[in-house]
Structure formats: C-alpha cells, structure tokens
Design a protein that fits this description.
This is Proteasome assembly chaperone 4. It comes from Oryzias javanicus (Javanese ricefish). Pfam families: PAC4. The protein is of the alpha+beta class and about 120 residues long. It has one domain: Ribosomal Protein S5, domain 2 (2-Layer Sandwich). Helices cover about 25% and strands about 40% of the residues. It is built from 2 helices and 6 strands. It has a 6-stranded mixed beta sheet with strand order 1-2-3-6-4-5, with helices on one face. Strand 2 and strand 3 form a beta hairpin. The protein is globular and about 40 Å long. The two termini are about 20 Å apart.
Length: about 120
Amino acid sequence: MNGADFRGVSVHNFSDKIMEQVVHFHVMKLDGGFFLWVGSAPVLSNLAVSLNSKYDSMPLSTLVMGDPSETTATSLAQRLAKRTEKQVFVSYSLPMSDSSLSLLVEGRIKKELELHPEHF
C-alpha cells in the first residue's frame, strides 16, 4: 500500500430504540474496511472479523475474542463483508437470547448502509 493512498479513519455514531431498548452503533471507517460496534453499554464482549476470498463465494470469518458459542458477531460480520465487499470487524454487545432483536438490529444497520454508504 502506498502511504499517499491512505485516507485515515472516520467515525460515525447513531442510536435507535429497538424493542424498548436503546441500541448504540459505532462505525469506524478504515482503509479498505470498517469496524462496527453494537451495544447498549460501553462493553467490548466479543470481536469478529470477516473478509472476502477469491476461493469461496462466502466471506471468511472468525471470532478474534469472546465466547465461541455465540455466533451473532461472526455471522453479522460475514453478511456485512459480503454486502459491502470490504473487510469487516464486528463487536456485538447485546443480549444474544433474543433473535428478534438481532434481526431488527441487522435491519437497522442495513438501513444506515443505504442512507449513509460513505460511512462504511
């Protein structure tokens, strides 16, 4: 990578009330990808990363830290990497017990991607 091509880091924050819970979203746009944190309190309980591969139609993904039995962060990172064609880091710090909440949260992220693609 040529240093002159590096565009730096930009930050985008948004929040929404989903199922009576305030959910915060923090996006750090990186050169060639982005980091997305989702949560209701300032906790980094897990971290997943996903990126596209020329060898498979589904992006590669792995959990860097956190409980391996919780797959929400990894799955979300993989779907976002496929959608954006970028390297994606995700930390999902909401209760994993409610799949309805996860679906609504992902829908809110997709809405933000459509409204503000420049932040991702």
